[in-house]
TrEMBL record:
Keyword RNA-binding: no
Any GO MF annotation of the entry: aspartic-type endopeptidase activity
Name the record gives this protein: Peptidase A1 domain-containing protein
Signal peptide span: 1-20
Organism in which the protein naturally occurs: Cercospora zeae-maydis SCOH1-5
Family annotation (InterPro entries): Aspartic_peptidase_A1, PEPTIDASE_A1, Peptidase_aspartic_dom_sf
Similarity comment: Belongs to the peptidase A1 family.
GO BP terms: fungal-type cell wall organization; proteolysis
Keywords: Aspartyl protease, Hydrolase, Protease, Signal, Zymogen
Membrane-crossing residue ranges in chain numbering: none
Residues of the Peptidase A1 domain: 40-380
Length: 404
């Protein structure tokens, strides 16, 4: 890890340690990004003595695990396995083997066994947590340097039983079983898109930061996580019924699926990009001075003039409608990122006629609550502030509809 990233991590840790202790039943876990801007990370310490490990947080994945330093990909010439990306189980006095059969369900198809050990993060230490131990990759061509595995915040409803919390490398259910958190839920603040000033974090448990909520919250029922065709048998998808782009005096819009029902979209902070219908993306990209016809297939971050990071340059926005329950607006300026070389781009793209995956570029404009016990998603416009006001969920959880 670079010195710059280490400083950013230290800043995040000290900010939230100083501001407030986590209420009983919750954990406030600081997050950070690197100069690639394509992921948010969390710091965990595994084993005895503890080994530092950096994992990508991922609300679009149910699993978590660590990488065996003896994994064949670690011998490649590009050296993808940094010291904070692997865990050596042979040096931990508290680690023990559980069983075979782990897979990380990612494109690189990480495979191995289940181990059990002590894990520390934020302000807690938890003994006897089960996790995957990746000894090989079924698709090593998808492994890029630096290698990071994920800590997943969705639930697997294909193999996890009726509550989706069965045996396996599932992070939140194990924390709930250990009474470290009081509820299987996570509340996300991804902060502003400014690497030098951002202070992202996630609250684990049945609490959320009320100071980050702007306007009215609304709650949606997750799309059926037991339906493989609709959701891939995991949580954290919601139905989107419409989208529109407002740019100067021009409006481009579309509706999707059956009226009032919409189409499933995964809220996935393991993905940097905001994937929209092609006509919506084209209207947005033209609104920030781009030429949609010049965007190449597979371009993960099309170039944008940096002037569009300034809110005064454009008042345009993309609006996402979730039936009559509520909508979220994403300002154009919030969708333009400054890259490490000083140029600017947007982590957004068009994918056919329907909305697809809503990643970080969308989620930074949202305060997001993922309730895995009630299978609900609660959204609001985000309020960017250094204040914290961590409060418990309403009794019985957020009810579907608008929450005043």
């Amino acid at each position: 890890m670079s010195v710059r990233i280490a400083i950013l991590l230290w800043t995040a840790l000290t900010t939230y340690t100083a501001s407030a202790a986590s209420p009983a039943g919750s954990i406030v876990l600081p997050l950070f990004r690197d100069s690639g801007l394509d992921a948010y990370y969390a710091e965990l310490f595994v084993g005895t003595p503890p080994q530092r490990n950096i994992l990508k947080v991922d609300s679009g994945s149910p699993m978590y695990g660590f990488i065996d330093p003896r994994n064949p990909v670690c011998n490649r010439s590009d050296k993808p396995c940094t010291a904070d990306a692997v865990f050596d189980n042979t040096t931990s006095s508290t680690c023990f083997y559980q069983r075979p059969g782990f897979t990380n369900f990612l494109a690189n198809v990480g495979q191995g066994d289940y181990l059990n050990d002590t894990i520390a993060f934020a302000d807690v230490t938890v003994e006897h947590l089960s996790f995957g131990y990746i000894s090989s990759f079924g698709q090593p061509s998808y492994v890029t340097a630096p290698l990071r595995n994920v800590v997943g915040f969705s639930l697997d409803c294909q193999f996890g039983g009726p509550s989706c919390i069965g045996q396996g490398g599932y992070f939140l259910p194990q924390l709930r079983n250990a009474s470290v958190i009081n509820h299987i839920a996570s509340s996300w603040y991804l902060s502003t898109d400014d690497l030098e000033k951002e202070n992202p974090y996630v609250i684990l448990g049945g609490f959320y930061d009320q100071s980050k909520v702007s306007g009215t919250q609304f709650t949606l029922q997750m799309v059926d996580p037991f339906n493989a065709a609709l959701t891939g048998s995991q949580t954290n998808s919601v139905n989107v019924t419409g989208m529109k782009v407002v740019s100067d005096s021009n409006t481009t819009s579309g509706t999707y699926g059956n009226p009032g029902e919409g189409v499933p979209v995964l809220l996935d902070n393991g993905v940097a990009s905001f994937y929209m219908p092609q006509n919506i993306f084209d209207a947005f990209y033209a609104g920030v001075g781009g030429d949609p016809s010049k965007v190449q297939l597979g371009d993960q971050h099309p170039v944008v003039d940096c002037s569009y990071r300034d809110a005064s340059t454009s008042s345009g926005y993309v609006e996402v409608e979730f039936s009559a329950t509520g909508s979220i607006q994403v300002p154009f300026h919030a969708m333009v990122s400054q890259l490490a070389d000083g140029t600017c781009a947007t982590f957004a793209g068009g994918r056919g006629p329907y909305p697809s995956i809503f990643g970080d570029t969308f989620l930074r404009s949202v305060y997001l609550i993922l309730d895995q016990e009630n299978f609900t998603v609660t959204l609001s416009q985000v309020q960017h502030t250094l204040e914290q006001n961590i409060v418990p969920f309403p009794e019985g959880g957020f009810k579907v509809g608008k929450n005043n």
